[in-house]
């Protein structure tokens, strides 16, 4: 405004004194200066009105005052800088979740009662995938590639089959052409049956008999992951319960799972495994303490497994069921003539749950496992096991110095009845209570108090699953 005023005054003076031929009196000059001043004032008022109109127009357009617009611009610049920094640090689309699952288990036959958390015990039905502390990292790239790393010290799949590794899952899922056709690589937890590995995804504390004794732990390999409408298909080649094949073992296994979501409330799936896996029967010792099958020790043998599961979930009601069949060559517990025999099994499991109050849910589960042939033998269990109730009963140990074909050739069928309650404390915490009754066709459970064997056992457990 000052610049415009000076310019006008300068022009006025130039007009007033620039032409000698037009000499003017002082009175005329004052009149011209007054007229010029009035014109400058008019121009100043017009400029102010234009600026006010522009401000009102901006406020009407953006719903903000000029000061608010400037503040918005500053925020936008800072946000862009934060996004750039997040991407540069690799944090874009990174999701971190986890949970902790302190658990209390009382086992009558084992004469134990106490809390379990990150315990280093071998896997068993009363020391399974509970008492965990898990940290999960998931990242998706702009092109759709997904990375997943799940850390589970002492109680993850890695601790079961890979020398105490803390890796529960380490995988990458790469799109091939489109997001519904993918290649899945790495260490992948088993997908058999209706029960999941992680406690937050299960209604009970313990797992069913089929999950514990007939299913693999994890796969290390490559899988095609295909989604077509309501169908989800996974199929590939992998090592079974093994991160690296040992010398002389070269054959991977064919693994697959197919799921179909029939409708909003129901669906079914089936899975299979056909290939070679470690045979624990070759670890059996003879009377002298040496390997009875030293010539076959360390050799994988053929495994075939088929499984069908289904579900119906609507409102407060949940039903899930599973049928399984399996066989491993030369992996039975009993070998009378010095020749390794085949282990085979069939089983079923069904679960029913109902939320009788929004936060309270009651659950019941029934399991049955038929395993009497050749002294018994399940996937990964080719020996008498008085803790888990597998084998020939009464702690029977057959060797060349104590042959008893009739007793040694008969395995044990198992069943389990489980009842549970759960309470949703809040969106991140679930409290569980469970009573489990295990039974067997022979006395296979060791009573550690007096060294006797019984056909039944009881377990009581409670846990608090806290997730974030």
Structure description:
The protein is α+β, with helices and mostly antiparallel strands and 468 residues long. It has two domains: 2-84; 97-467, Porin (Beta Barrel), CATH 2.40.160.10. Helices cover 19% and strands 40% of the residues. The chain has six helices and 20 strands. The strands form two sheets. It has a 16-stranded antiparallel beta barrel with strand order 1-4-5-6-7-8-9-10-11-12-13-14-15-16-17-20. Strand 2 (103-107) and strand 3 (112-116) form a beta hairpin. Helix 1 packs antiparallel against helix 2 (26-62). The relative contact order is 0.10.
Topology:
Layout lengths: L1 H16 L8 H37 L3 H23 L5 E7 L2 E5 L4 E5 L16 E8 L5 E6 L5 H5 L5 E10 L1 E12 L19 H5 L4 E11 L2 E10 L12 E8 L5 E12 L23 E14 L2 E12 L14 E15 L2 E11 L34 H4 L5 E13 L2 E12 L4 E2 L6 E2 L1 E12 L1
Antiparallel strand pairs: 1-4, 1-20, 2-3, 2-20, 4-5, 5-6, 6-7, 7-8, 8-9, 9-10, 10-11, 11-12, 12-13, 13-14, 14-15, 15-16, 16-17, 17-20, 18-19
CATH architecture designation of the largest domain: Beta Barrel
Helical segment count: 6
Mean pLDDT, nearest integer? 88
Looking at CATH, which topology of the largest domain would you report? Porin
Apparent shape: elongated
């Amino acid at each position: 405004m000052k610049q415009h005023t000076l310019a006008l005054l300068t022009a006025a003076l130039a007009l007033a004194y620039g032409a000698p031929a037009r000499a003017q009196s002082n009175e005329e000059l004052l009149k011209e200066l007054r007229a010029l001043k009035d014109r400058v004032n008019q121009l100043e008022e017009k400029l102010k009105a234009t600026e006010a109109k522009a401000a009102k127009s901006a406020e009407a357009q953006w719903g903000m005052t000029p000061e608010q617009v400037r503040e918005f611009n500053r925020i936008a610049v800072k946000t862009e800088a934060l996004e750039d920094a997040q991407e540069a640090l690799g944090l874009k689309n990174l999701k971190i979740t986890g949970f902790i699952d302190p658990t209390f288990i009382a086992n009558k036959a084992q004469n134990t009662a106490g809390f379990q958390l990150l315990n280093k015990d071998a896997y068993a039905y009363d020391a399974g995938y509970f008492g965990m502390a898990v940290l999960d990292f998931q990242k998706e790239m702009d092109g759709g590639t997904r990375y997943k790393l799940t850390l589970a010290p002492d109680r993850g799949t890695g601790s079961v089959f890979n020398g105490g590794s803390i890796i529960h899952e380490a995988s990458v899922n790469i799109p091939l052409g489109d997001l519904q056709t993918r290649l899945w690589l790495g260490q992948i937890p088993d997908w058999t049956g209706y029960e999941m590995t992680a406690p937050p995804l299960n209604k009970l504390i313990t797992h069913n008999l089929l999950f514990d004794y007939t299913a693999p732990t994890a796969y290390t390999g490559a899988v095609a992951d295909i989604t077509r409408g309501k169908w989800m298909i996974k199929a590939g080649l992998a090592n079974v319960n093994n991160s690296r094949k040992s010398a002389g073992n070269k054959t991977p296994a064919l693994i697959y799972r197919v799921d179909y979501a029939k409708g909003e409330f129901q669906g079914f799936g089936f899975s299979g495994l056909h290939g070679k896996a470690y045979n624990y029967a070759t670890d059996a010792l003879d009377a002298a303490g040496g390997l009875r099958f030293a010539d076959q020790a360390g050799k994988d043998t053929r495994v075939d497994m088929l499984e069908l599961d289904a579900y119906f979930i609507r409102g407060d009601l949940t039903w899930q069921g599973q049928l399984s069949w399996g066989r491993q060559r030369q992996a039975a517990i009993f070998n009378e003539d010095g020749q390794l025999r085949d282990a085979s099994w069939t089983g079923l499991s069904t679960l029913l749950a109902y939320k009788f109050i929004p936060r309270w849910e009651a659950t019941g589960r029934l399991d049955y496992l038929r395993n009497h042939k050749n002294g018994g033998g399940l996937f990964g269990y080719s020996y008498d096991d008085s803790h888990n109730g597998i084998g020939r009963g009464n702690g029977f140990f057959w060797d060349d110095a104590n042959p008893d074909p009739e007793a040694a050739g008969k395995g044990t069928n198992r069943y389990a009845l489980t009842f549970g309650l759960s309470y949703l404390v809040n969106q991140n915490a679930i409290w569980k209570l469970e009573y489990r009754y295990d039974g067997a066709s022979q006395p296979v459970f060791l009573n550690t108090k007096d060294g006797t064997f019984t056909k039944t056992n009881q377990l009581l457990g409670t846990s608090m699953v806290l997730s974030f």
